[in-house]
Amino acid sequence: MENINEVEPRPNVKIEKNSILFFDMDGTLVDTDFANFLSYKKAIQTVIQLDLGTLFNPKERFNRTSIKKVIPNLTDVEYDNIIQQKEKNYKDYLPQTKINKLIADILIQYSKTNKTVLVTNCRKDRALMTLNYHNLTDKFSTLFFRQSSANENRINKFTNAISVMNLSAKEVLVFENEKQEIEDALAAGILINNILSV
């Protein structure tokens, strides 16, 4: 496997007529971090009446692990209630999501000529809500959402999509922002020159 440190933005990635374009959503196609944080903040206020104040960090996505770091004494019931409430709150903060124009323009342009595939670890309901809000849902020929194994282990989303669609990894171009996911793309056999790190 090639070194992940060699992966840099490649604005001149050549898109051929047989290229299949894989797009990540959160942080790549749409910046959802602030909306995600606000959804958690409101959920935590609702469930345990704790104000997170100004903990938002634009360099780090607030997630389930963050909750346990910030509030280590949560009961399992409180934690589960926060997660459920966060999912309900998200729709209220859709206006706080921002489209990545460069990536969206590529998606819109090539959706007319190539296979364009959403490959995200986002849950289906939230992903569709976000895509619909930005009028992007119909720009994809195929949609892959969060998958997990029976024991809740994470699944390589790229390997899964390539397998289900019966593709050659060499034809796939990836638009992705997370280091771990870029490593997964390489592990799935996607060429390093076919990965646009956003």
Summarize the structure.
This protein is an alpha/beta fold and 198 residues long. Helix content is 38%, strand content 12%.
Question: What does this protein structure show overall?
Answer:
This protein is of the alpha/beta class. The protein folds into two domains: 127 residues, Rossmann fold; 63 residues. Helix content is 38%, strand content 12%. The protein has seven helices and seven strands. The strands form two sheets. It has a five-stranded parallel beta sheet with strand order 5-4-1-6-7, sandwiched between helices. Strands 2-3 form a two-stranded antiparallel ribbon. The N terminus is likely disordered.
> What distance lies between the first and last C-alpha atoms, to the nearest angstrom?
20 Å
Total domain modules: 2
Structure class: alpha/beta
The number of helical segments is 7
> Widest sheet: strand order?
5-4-1-6-7
From the 3D coordinates, which CATH architecture of the largest domain would you assign? 3-Layer(aba) Sandwich
Mean pLDDT: 88
The CATH homologous superfamily of the largest domain is termed HAD superfamily/HAD-like
* Cα Rg: 18 Å
